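[User] At your convenience, examine this fold.
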Amino acid sequence: MSDTEPRYPIEWEADVVLRDGSTAHLRPIEPTDADALQRFHMAQSEQSTYLRFFAPMERLSARDLERFTTVDHHDRVALVVVRRVVDGEEIVGVGRFDRVARDEAEVAFNIADAAQGRGVGSVLLEHLATAAREVGVRRFTADVLPQNGRMIAVFREAGYAVTQHLDDGVVQVSVDLDPTERSREVMADREHRAEARSMQAVLGARSVLVVGPPGPCLQAYAAERVAASLRAAETRHLVVTVTQASDLDVLDEPVELAVVSLAPEIAVDVVPHLENLGVRALVLLSGGYAEAGAQGLALQRDLLRAAHGAGMRVVGPASYGLFVRREDGDLNASLSEELPPAGRVGFFCQSSPMAVTLLATVARRRLGVSSFLSAGNRAGVSGNDLMQYWQDDENTDVVCLYLESIGNPRKFSRIARRLSRVKPVVVVTAGRSGHVVPAGHAVRTTRAPRRTLDEMLRQSGVIRADNTHHLVDIAQLLEHQPLPTGRRVGILASSPALAALVAEAVSSAGLEVAEVSRSLAEDADDETVTAAVDAVYAEGTCDAVVVVHVPTLRPRTGRVASAVARAAARTGRTSVVSMLGLHGLDPELTATSAGVERIVPAYSTPEDAVAALGAVVRYVRWRAQDQGVSVSPPGLRPAAARAVVESALAGPEPVALDERDTHAVLDAYGIDLWETVNVSTVDEAVRAADELGYPVALKHTAESLRHRSDLGAVRLDIQDADELREDFAAMLGAFTDVVPAVAPAPFEIQRMAGKGVACVIRSAEDQLFGPVVSFGLAGDAVDLLADVASGVPPLTDVDVATIVRSVRAAPRLFGYRGAPVSDVAALEDLVARVSVMADDLPELRSLELYPVVVAERGATVLSARLTVAPAHRADTLRRALPA
């Protein structure tokens, strides 16, 4: 690239899912697109051409072609949506803007007639708006003919602030590009519908093509295993052995799903031939891609580009396959020879070994499954896609995910939070922190605290399981028992010792032991068993029941199990049992009442039973509580803050904002930073104090001495000039060795704040999680004990309140030991403003408000440090598949 040639913004490229669930590729236009653009233009109807150019235009002139395809990606930007064709790419949509003022650009779209109604225009608007914000454009304008209802609808339905008026027969539209709550909702809803439909092409396939190599090898064996599974399920399928991609040309029967077990080099070449057969989704069983090194990664990218350009979703590589239990015939395109029973639990995992372990555990428990998918290295389809699908799937009531990595935590949190409100989501992660990156998985590095993942999952309402067994423990309870109505637990045990053990487990799980709890001797007769069971299940006695029956002298009979099953079915009381010899979902614990069959799940140990029950009770409480509304404090001016940040960024390196810019950014978000005056001599200190007004604080500015009142580096409540001179001299003498390092202004003067609780609020932009906002009480609680609560924006008012109250030192804010009650509302408002700022400004690399003094009235920010850097956020306000 020459020095004068504009840089091609490769980061604007994206694979996208359209409204009908098909995929396409979106990228900046290039001069080499001139011929494709001419073909696109000439294929348009006369009406479409007139609506775009306000005049008939059979062909684009050479001058127009050059103008439309040669752009600078800053003042003149154009994006195209393309699909694969036999000899290259075909343009199906063009969106462009031309800057007409510093922060304003004129926008235009042209969508292929054949692609109308598939959401190409809305996708282009999302990506153009994101690109525009990156280059400083904040408003789009457009002239639209009144009869061009589709284009007017694209603007109106996007959720942005839109104004329009008719002038001389033309509708003039103005679109404010600052994201709104409505625009975020629209994007999330469109994303949900498109991705759910795309997964329908994967899981709803009625015809399957299995492609494998000849000869005895693992890839051939995998292909044959899938073919055998399809035969057993009586699914319409074809099996083809290929040595080269052209071997598929003998086929002419359309197929919806392809399962491929080939070497990467051949698999990439196979994609165009699969497109000719109408394939909508591709499952890659074989490996050898990103996990094999740079060459494999390049092949993986080539395959994804080819498949997405051809409208296909990709499952894998290194997938174990997928299966769906259906009344009209199962789809089993997996390596599993036997399927679990049909049921209403959806399972997602990644690697094949974990799939084997998970399915074996499910089978041992006799747990019913609605659908299952192994994403392998999840280069394409991920757990986010499955959650989108399961939200609308009438055959799935419970969602379970084993995640070895999370590629886009912000998107995961957004989708899981919406899904958890209607269906329980149970998650196991590899490790507790999300820092694990298996070979072949595309995961950004993270420096977020290890507890950030815990906070994100809690915020999303998902049920966190410790391991595979715990996952299935919870799933079998959710699927076969009603949700508990409270936290009171009745206990029925076969000995007082067991009853005490269970009671301790119940209390440790945050539940309450009900007074109705009973012990039942192992030699109790039928009448005694019935009386004890009826007493525990009596109306109003408890919200859930734990039954533990472990005979020590005689073999266990089915009397207790049968009585408990009948009582649980009759009362609808949530029940779990731990009985010798029973595990999972056993016919012995099955009963029917009023035509409804219930199975009481059995667990290996009482602790396992209580742990599952406790997890479900916590989920029910989360689901029942007010989820709050997204925080939106008044008086925000994000455009003003963004202008300051953009002006400060001169290159790729992080920049610490100076005092003036720090004040400006905080002021744009309604945060008042108290004035601080840097001084180097005692006379300057006295003059500054006279201007600010006594009492004042004197602070050392050396990094190692910030906030160190314990070392004498902070002197508070200085009442007059004499005291200030004395403290200045003492501090200067004590830290003589430090002063040269921070010259010429080693001290600062600040007006004293009122008495209150000192807190610290921070935000950091993490490559993986995006913005992470944290809160704690200043001092040893944060510095030594890491007593910090975090949240991943966007936050609700409930999230903010939870963050403030989650730290262990929080009682100090609420009148601990007779101290005044702090203005927590003002503190929460401040945390909310920081969270919105962090969400709005991906360039905000770090922020620290320290200390924030929370008094009986008001919260005062005494010091602030902000660092900005070029934005590299993974989850932006545009729809895109994993890169």
In short: The mean pLDDT is 92. The two ends are 24 Å apart (CA to CA). The chain has 26 helices and 38 strands. The first strand starts at residue 14 and ends at 17.
